[in-house]
Design goal:
Oligomer: single chain
Largest sheet: 6 strands, parallel
Distance between the termini: 26 Å
Strand order of the largest sheet: 3-4-2-1-5-6
Radius of gyration: 19 Å
Number of strands: 6
Structural class: alpha/beta
Length: about 250
């Protein structure tokens, strides 16, 4: 049973298993990616109902550009054909993108920007899609931005801290994930939000993304609610703080 008072503010998902799901059905991998878009719509709506405020979806990594050209083309085409504003309009959901825009086709870049602009005032939940994204790219880019500011004299080297790095990341507008879910059975992070998930709870499920449903999401949140997030403190410290909060 989910405790409605302990819903994770931010859930990040590695949507894995589309290709294998399709292959097991004798279909091309693109068939699985198309089926995965239906799951995106459903899980987005489910997260809205649960009260999640941020949902970040790993859709396409910088390494995915190395996949067969026909698969990459099919994935880019899905953005154009499946990214509509109906779900966002209906649920008051804002749409954001993180990743290297420069590598994407112009038509895809335009569609993404149009959707971001259209939903900019929506505030019930924010869906962030990671496209042409990797943490190593993001951290490298942030390092360059900081280095340039040091060169210009607007930042002092001795003043650089964790907050400085976070402020120059692609994700500076959102809180760090509370819960990271990976579908498809693999148990690795795959260059996803490496800086941001330092204290996230990790949940791995064998369920392929096209089959992932509300029941699976609930299991992940229930697991999250069994965890005691200590952020480097002791169990006794956390329990004492929670006791004080309860008294208040």
């Amino acid at each position: 049973m989910i405790d409605p008072k302990r819903i994770p503010t931010h859930i990040a998902i590695i949507m894995d298993g589309n290709g294998r799901w399709a292959t097991e059905r004798g279909k091309p991998r693109s068939f699985g990616h198309a089926a995965g878009t239906d799951t995106i719509r459903q899980i987005t709506a489910d997260c809205v109902r649960l009260g999640v405020k941020y949902l970040t979806l790993y859709a396409f990594s910088t390494e995915n550009w190395n996949r067969p050209p026909e698969e990459v083309a099919a994935l880019m085409d899905l953005v154009l054909t499946q990214l509509t504003t109906e779900l966002f309009d209906k649920n008051n959901v804002r749409f954001r993108v993180i990743g290297d825009y420069s590598r994407m086709p112009e038509a895809v870049r335009n569609r993404l920007r149009e959707t971001e602009e259209h939903t900019a005032s929506y505030d019930r939940m924010t869906v962030i899609v990671a496209l042409s994204y990797s943490s190593r790219w993001e951290i490298t880019n942030a390092t360059k931005l900081i280095a340039q500011k040091v060169k210009e004299g607007t930042i002092n080297v001795d003043d650089i801290n964790e907050d400085t790095v976070s402020e120059h990341l692609n994700t500076s507008f959102m809180p760090d994930p509370d819960l990271l879910i990976r579908t498809g059975g693999e148990q690795r992070i795959s260059n996803y939000l490496l800086w941001q998930i330092a204290y996230s709870e990790l949940y791995f499920t064998p369920v392929y993304w096209p089959d992932f449903c509300m029941d699976d999401l609930v299991k992940a949140v229930e697991y999250y609610q069994t965890r005691q997030r200590r952020f480097g403190k002791t169990e006794a410290q956390i329990e004492a703080e929670q006791s004080e909060q309860y008294k208040g």
